[in-house]
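Limitations
The structure tokens in this dataset are predictions for the assembled complex, not deposited experimental models. Users should treat interface geometry with appropriate caution, especially where small molecules or nucleic acid strands are included. An illustrative entry is reproduced here so readers can see what is and is not provided.
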Amino acid sequence: MRFRLRFVIGVGLIVAALTYLITTAIRNTSEYYLTVSEVSARAAQLQSQPLRVAGRVKPDTINWEPSTLTLKFEMVPIPETTPEGVKPVAASDPVSFKVTCVGQPKPDMFAAGRDVIVEGRLDSHGGIAASQVLTSCPSKYEPKKGQ
Amino acid sequence: MADLGKLTLAIALILAIYSIAANLYGARRGAPAFVASARHALWAMCAMVTIAVVALWNGLLTSDFSLEYVAAYSSSTLPTPYKFTALWGGQQGSLLFWTWLLLIFSSIAAFQNRRRNPEIAPYAMMVLAGVAIFFLAMLNFVTRPFDLMSPIPAQGQDLNPLLQNYWMAIHPPSLYTGYVSATVPFAFGAAALMTGKLDDTWIRTTRRWAIFSWFFLTLGNLFGARWAYEVLGWGGYWAWDPVENAAFMPWLVMTAYLHSVMIQERKDMLKVWNLALIGLAFSLTIFGTFITRSGVISSVHSFTQSGLGPYFLVFLAAVVAGYAGLIWFRARELRSPAEFESYLSREAAFLFNNLVLIGIAFAVFWGTIFPVLSEAVRGVKITVGPPFFNSVNGPLALALVFLMGVGPLIAWRRTSADKLVRSFAAPIALGVATALAALIGGIRAWYVLTAFSLSGFVLGTVIVEFHRGVNARRHLVAESAPRALVNLVSKNNRRYGGYIIHLGVLIAFAGIVGSSFFKTEVKRSVREGESFSIGPYQLRYLGMSAVDTPHLLSATARLEVVRDGREAVTMEPAKLVYKRQEQPATIVAIRSTPLADLYVVLAGIDDTNRATFEVFLTPLVWWLWAGGVLMAIGTVVAMWPNVRERAAIAAALSRARAGELGAEPAPGGD
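Predicted assembly:
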């Protein structure tokens, strides 16, 4: 019986260590995952926080400079989907962010109107300095009915 | 063909319901004819779904675009092998394939147990048929593979280019095989709970199924990593994406299960734990499908998001609640008389190994669902990425490797300090020597030093084990050393197969540590004739060539690669554009050596004579694949039918017959 107690203590220590590892790791590595509209609504609190922002590439704003690997574009909110399909991006959409990403190649799937996830921080001009631009990669396509 | 497919799926669903009813009646009333009939119904279900699978394959191979599935995931220009693999390229086909595997495995299990285990087998078959009912209901009512298109399109939308790859052809079937075969031990565990026959019969009966499942989960994860490495072109092989985590968690739990059942077989302990583990493993396979299909957790590789999520969630909740209820109901009978006696015992080492494995699985689970939890609790979505998983699992992996060395060398029950010193002196020396060698080699990162040192230690313990065994044989039967080694492994294949797996894990672990800590990367946009360097390599861009076929358009860059001024080779990374889907894909050029991989990506073609390259130099990544191969070999050794075991069973049976002892129960081992 005495050993049983010691055993429970041993197991308890392991569980405690695991809890400690998880909570500290969460505190140190978590990033806000926000949409473009959410970022603009709370821009003030989010200064210098690590962010992941989901949005859509605004057409005619892409500027890719291959010699310096600099990608600049504007990002707008992803419109709500409706049963008929996806609404087009409104040209006069008020909320948009300038995204600047230096040092990364342009992703294969990157194009106007595509959905992207940008990792980075807000810069002093109200844009996003991105360390990485990820394109949502639709690894399986949904058939378009009646096509 | 579409009608045939629909019809067979409907018949299979009806048969599944009949099979459960017949089994229940037969087992309750002791009517073997009904149990046999239920078994035949299971076989008939398997035949029906086989016909459905052949019908869908026929549609894919003949490019029958009247089928919505074929139009969505294939095209007439798709190369034939990929028309074949398009069966699991989309959701409906994947679920059909899953159901087919489930019924093949259920049929085999039914055949194996047609005379054996008359008490629990009917209940296990009921569980298997119950799982089949869920999947067949999905295929009949929710996500139908034989829906028709109208009007019939002239051409299909083609299989996603990322899936038109050798590794993608074999990765999903391996993973599905691993997932689905875990259902068999789960069914027998549930049957043991239902019938109250709670000894280790269910474990022994399904031991080989569990190893089989683990084998394919291992391969499935490795093939997926290999695919990510070769195809996705980001230089890594694992990103802790929810979809990857979904495949990794069942592997962790099955690994824990395979170890902890040994304690029950030896010491009659941990009954509840083993039952819980197999239930968890099965639930995680369903959970994995739920995450990938529901879109609840955003993944970079988002699969088709569909209305399937809620059904899987309800099924998962029913499985977990029902199974937990059964364990609760049997809790009193599951109490074990034996107890742990010492920390310095093999069962304690196994228990801690289990805790660490489940700890890793929990951390992965927590990180995967954290965005959903934080949104529900705090109203803001917070994600954790690879840094989270690495910082939690890094230390846990070290603990696991340490226990992997300790477990096999200490005795059951308890070990004396004296024995401990004798067993561990040589391995510890090897561990210290490895650390010193790494220090001299210029490695300063504490994690890497610890990891390599522990790997040396565990390598030492494996060598000691083989050495001991060979020596014992040479003294007993006077064999030469190589013959003794072969006999040792073949006569104790489960144990020594396990050590070979451990060796593979060690090598893979060293590869993972090396490739994570010492990867270097260069990104450069260059003109024709310009060169740049990474590590000892000089790369010169020679030019671009293009090929245009009806199926795809490709641009291939040629690079001259020189190492330390000698041995020039040409590497040809390329970019493809698949015409049907207007989607670009990357063909990575990899020059692999045991020391390091040179990995060249054509990241962009900027204008007529300028291209952007992304180049990675990744040390030791070759070891990951080599370790994987060794793990596979070890698993085959451990699964191999043991000649001695068979002979012992046969001898026992013939003795029973000769002595006319009547119906002595056949040993349960398979």
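Some entries come with short summary sentences. For this one: Chain B touches chain A through 66 residues (CB under 8 Å).
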